[in-house]
Design brief:
Nuclear Transport Factor 2, Chain: A, 7 helices, alpha+beta
Length: about 300
């Protein structure tokens, strides 16, 4: 009865977490979406410069620059400009912008070259005030979806989320290596003291139970068990990262394939696995694999 009660409690906790993620995750995915417009066949967006609406051509093959007809101020200097025609040396004005806003992201104190871009506007039938080139596209963390005709600008929250996810993934690589080396001490340090593990058949609570499960089932085999992971769909929340994963474990039992959801959290300056929920498992026993291999050889 106690085991059923503990399973129920853990299952309810898991369902509550999944419900919270369903609420939180769409918000994390929204970010800043800026609609792409067209100047003939060329993609353009609205950019606010010093509070005024301007039109910038989006060009991933060009250097960011301004139209001299729109921004006449500045000092002359020699520059090298990249465009779809290649890179060339030219004389241009260098213009200081007090403020430039793309989506909701504000850039302060930019200095951009200004040359005559009137030929582009004449070709597409609309005034072009500047070019949003590869340098600012990278700086703003912009991705472009031509199918949806949207430009996505990475937010400060997304920057933080990306940093947390990268940090967590780097830490987990060491944990994967510890598992494949049957290094119980190192792998144990990768587990949160209160970790919860749900497999399709049973559940384990706490570091000792979870470590004991992996020790008894996979560690110190000859040849050693091999775990491979494919993580995806990361959702940072606070100092934790939820994500989905697919895995295979090749061991003396056979080849186990599965999917699930996990959470890692950072405590005391270290990332540890706090929760794992296997949502799908299938085992191909050793005998079946050997027969399959023999059949293929014939």
């Amino acid at each position: 009865m106690e085991r059923v009660s503990r399973w129920s409690q853990g299952s309810v906790q898991g369902l509550v977490v999944l419900a919270l993620l369903a609420i939180l995750c769409p918000c994390l995915a929204w970010g800043q979406e800026v609609p792409l417009e067209k100047c003939d066949a060329l993609p353009v967006i609205e950019v606010r410069v010093a509070g005024q609406a301007t039109t910038f051509l989006v060009d991933t093959a060009a250097t960011s620059m301004l139209n001299l007809k729109s921004f006449a101020g500045g000092k002359a200097r020699d520059i090298r400009v990249s465009s779809w025609h290649g890179t060339l040396a030219t004389s241009a004005k260098e213009v200081s912008l007090g403020e430039m806003v793309v989506g909701d992201t504000k850039l302060i104190g930019l200095e951009l070259p200004a040359i005559d871009l009137s030929a582009i506007g004449e070709a597409c039938g609309r005034k072009i005030d500047g070019i949003l080139g590869v340098d600012l596209i990278a700086k703003l963390g912009i991705t472009i979806d031509l199918k949806k005709q949207m430009l996505h600008v990475r937010t400060a929250d997304e920057e933080r989320a990306a940093k947390l996810t990268t940090e967590m993934m780097q830490a987990m690589r060491g944990c994967l290596a510890a598992f494949n080396a049957s290094d119980e001490k190192a792998f144990g340090e990768c587990l949160d003291p209160k970790i919860v593990l749900f497999t399709m058949k049973t559940e384990f609570y706490g570091r000792e139970q979870v470590l004991g499960f992996f020790r008894d089932k996979y560690f110190h085999q000859q040849p050693g068990a091999k775990l491979e992971l494919n993580e995806m769909a990361f959702h940072p929340v606070g100092e934790a990262v939820w994500y989905e994963y697919e895995f295979t474990i090749e061991s003396s039992l056979g080849l186990l394939r599965g999917k699930g959801m996990a959470m890692c959290r950072k405590t005391d300056g270290r990332w540890r696995m706090a929760s794992m929920h296997h949502t799908n498992e299938s085992l191909e026993p050793v005998v079946a694999r050997e027969r399959s291999a023999a059949g293929a050889e014939r």
